[in-house]
Every structure is written in C-alpha cells, then in structure tokens.
C-alpha cells in the first residue's frame, strides 16, 4: 500500500520551462543581448544536455551553471562571462515561479492521505525561494534538494540521504513522480506513465 509520495519540483509542480524562458530573457537583456526566440531555444537545448552530463557524473553542478552560458556565448560570438550570466540568471530565476494548472487542487487532496516530499535537483537558494514564492511548502513534510543532500538524482546516495532524513521509511510503500526518465523515474523500480499530475489518483488506486 502506497503511503508516501515523492514529487519532483520542476515541470511536475512548477512550470520550469516558463520560468527558464522568463529568467533567460531578462538575463540576456541585462547583458545587452537581444533575447531572440532562437537563442532561448538553443540555450534550453544546451542546458538540458549539460544536466544530462551531470546525471551521468561527467561534469559537476558548478560546471553546469556556467558552461551552458559559455557555450551559448561562444556560438553567438559574444564576449561575456559565464559566471556573470549565471549570477544574473540565478537572481531572475529565483523570482520566477509558475504553478502548473491544477497542481494545488491535487496537493490539497494528496496531503490528507499521503506523506508528501519534494525531491529536486538544483541550487538550494534558488529552489528555496521559488518554493516560498509559490507558497507550496505547507503541503510537504520535508523538501530535499540535491545541493543539500550532496548528490544528484538518480544516484542511490541521493535517495539514501532522503530516506535517512525521513527516518528510514518503508520504501515499498513509496512512489516517485517526476517528468524525467533519467533523473526521476530511474530512481524508482516499476514505471508508470501519466500525462499530468491530476491522473495520479487513478494510478495510486491501481497500485
């Protein structure tokens, strides 16, 4: 019987792609670069690729944060600092949060029946402020962010760190819900697919 639900944050609860586009557009403007849709789309591709490399353990989280900008700037032939871009972007992203439609209703119903936890890869300071801004921490027993745990999803050390803080719960009574096959679903055992968070109730009744 399922009694615990681990929920990813970005693109499961909060619309990260919308926040990313907002923050990147503002960052480019602050750097004097016209925020063309083609640049934003290319950044998103590069960013996704960098995070995949992180999941594979090929680069560090610190490298992800700056290299994605450096790659974009190199392709554009722009002389800008990846470090400066990251600092601006982090500030803009911190203040950007968009809750996916219907999510609050789902959380309201889930919290009365299940132990809820957020499990997220990302920078703690950014995720903390986005969670606070969206006012969703009240639905969760605890929030686990990879930077604090010391490992990224889907590494077993990340989940073991979460389980330790959860006082070693019954893993068989737990599911993880997320948008990424590599970082979220790989952390589980059996795979199920839903198209949006609202469908989780039907899934929970079937398991």
Keywords for this entry:
207 residues; alpha/beta; 4 strands; four-stranded parallel sheet; 50% helix
Strand order in the largest sheet: 3-2-1-4
N→C terminal distance? 7 Å
- Strand and helix order: EHHHHHEHEHHEH
Instruction: Based on Cα principal axes, name the global outline.
Output: globular
Please mark out the parts with pLDDT under 50 across 5 or more consecutive residues, or reply none.
none
Protein structure class: alpha/beta
Major beta sheet, specifics?
A: 4 strands, parallel
Backbone CA Rg = 18 Å
Question: Number of helical segments?
Answer: 9
Counted beta strands: 4
Query: Overall pLDDT, averaged?
Result: 90
Helix content percent band? 40-55%
Query: Roughly what fraction of the amino acids lie in strands?
Result: 5-15%
3D structure, described in words:
With 207 residues, this protein is α/β, with parallel strands linked by helices. 50% of the residues lie in helices and 9% in strands. It has 9 helices and 4 strands, in the order E-H-H-H-H-H-E-H-E-H-H-E-H. The longest helix is centred in the first third of the chain and has 19 residues.
Set down the secondary structure blueprint.
Layout: E1 4-7, H1 16-30, H2 37-55, H3 61-76, H4 82-94, H5 103-110, E2 115-120, H6 124-134, E3 142-145, H7 146-149, H8 156-165, E4 174-177, H9 200-206
Parallel strand pairs: 1-2, 1-4, 2-3
Helix pairs in contact: 1-4, 2-3, 3-4, 4-6
